[in-house]
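TA notes. Do not distribute before section.
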Amino acid sequence: MRPGSFCQRCGAEIESGAPRASRLEPPRCGRCGEHLPVGPVPAVGVAVLRSGRILLVRRRYAPMQGSWALPGGFLEVGETPAEAAVREAREETGLTVKLGALLGGFHGGGSRGGVIFLCYRAVVQGGRLEAGDDATDAGFFSLEEPPRPFARGPHPHVLARLRAERRDR
């Protein structure tokens, strides 16, 4: 299933023609009532490199359940993108990270406008590596040959940019 086809609050699959109170109101999730985005939704992630290896998590839930991806997720109400990136890294990997520069903004697909994925460079400051929250596994893997299945959407583009930067040095 494509990103944007699941409720960002409860994870329910969104059927086409989701209910609306009026044509002026965005559609709502049939399970929890959350307003559904109709354009790109902001999401964040971290690119943590250590000795040429990238930090990845195996996704616990749909979409892309079982795929390896960068640690990340959606912003919560009142969070800045940087705060969300630090929180998501800690929740999914057990690691505390210090953010560096923004690596870039990447578009991810989806029938409802998809996501705009802001990916930060980051370094590990502390914690113990262990899968948590939305992940079933976490670890450092070869940047050149990430584990399979690998996530779709913006994740391959982030890895491609990191590999290109390494070649250009």
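Switch to the second chain here.
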Amino acid sequence: MPVDYLSVAFLELEKTAGYRNRHQEYWKRFFLGEKLPPDAPVYIRKVEKYIDFANLGKEERRMISLEEKAKADYESVLSTASDDGREKGREEGREEGILEVARNMKAGGEAIERIAMFTGLSEETITAL
């Protein structure tokens, strides 16, 4: 059975004698349901999004959560594929570089045994180049 969690937060604005700081004004607007100005702090905007999400119906919250999970999964797969591709590309590039060095050494008249010693390739592979 799914469990719904409840988050509770308490906020008390400083009690001042007729003076409010700028952040208190943002909170006041937020609690009165007024539109936040563009320069409102990021943390108040995050609270606004969190409350908007919490006020959605259960099915709407479930759908949004599934969408966010799918997006995170997709980004994770892309990241892994990108890392795998880079690693595979590095390995293929390294192998191609070794073969090129071996070809050049062979074309320059180096002994096959010496090429094998420096490149780590087998003598059969070098002979086939």
